[in-house]
């Protein structure tokens, strides 16, 4: 047992590790429950690809608008309450999307996606901060596995979506059932999060230092790394299903399977990513995965048939797998600055989800949905260039915090 684990019972840390894994997994399930049914949602709302891209923008806008407040919120009330608040917003948001689909009202679905986005952002920052804390205390590289839990949740959600599409289950029914599962599972999981230290009476809480974090060059560069890989992942999340369905002339169920292949590859790569990071380090691994994503993207766009396109989805998923978790670990290298730095890095990274859906939707109208995916090449180039920023902080390179900063 390390000195860090000595401050808390080992059993408490292990329960927290399981709870963080559940939080990541349920988050992935909530996301994939509707992403895997995008063709049905698009058709039910009678939207073009460009219009559907704008609808997806609602969720990204909600996430980006809430992210700057997520770090200070975690700092103020702790990860446990922040995750629960975020999950509650996601539950209500998904129910609103279901209602929008039922009534055929795109504006209601868009409002639901906006609310879902706000909940996702605070949930995401809080569970990453909690995961980084557990990782430090147990002195094991756990972040890739936590994010593998998210991917496993998306695999489960994608398979459920494929099954519902095949069985003809209405998408609004599926979304309603998922929303209830989300809040019940999260409410149970957060009870096992690490206890928040009790502040002495009369002691003023230190300021979060969020403005200082926005002026740190390393934090901003780590944010660019996350942005690059988030764009690489997010374009596939939003458009891979539709690209396979429209580009290769297959049914909705096959498109959902392609998305499942993508997220399954991400899950496996994240499960074994910790070992790769321990052996070769953050920077070489990130550069190698960017090259892998490039090969996968090329196959999806230019494959002569569906089998090679599915292989491309697999390679794309593996290549996009480690950028986000490694960026979160790098942002949280210092425990006392973890919450605000994770929120800053997440804010930068989530701009990929803000720009991606409408950009790809616009390009799809001009050059076709498959060729529009080539915009990911720019993100991969950025990832290769700035991957070096994720090197772990050494004692002499640590960015010192200043409690006088707001």
Major β-sheet annotation: none
Poorly predicted runs: 1-5, 395-406
* Total helical elements: 16
Radius of gyration: 20 Å
Along the chain, the helix and strand elements come as HHHHHHHHHHHHHHHH
Q: Structural class of the helix and strand makeup?
A: mainly alpha
Could you give the distance between the termini? 37 Å
Gross morphology is: globular
Q: What is the number of E strands? A: 0
Mean pLDDT: 84
Summarize the structure.
This protein is mostly helical and 406 residues long. It contains 16 helices and no strands. 58% of the residues are buried.
Structure explained in plain terms:
By secondary structure, this protein is mainly α. The chain has 16 helices and no strands. Helix 9 packs antiparallel against helix 13, helix 10 runs antiparallel to helix 11 and helix 11 runs antiparallel to helix 16. The longest helix is centred in the first third of the chain and has 55 residues. The radius of gyration is 20 Å and the shape is globular. The chain starts with a helix and ends in a 20-residue tail after the last helix. The N terminus and C terminus are likely disordered.
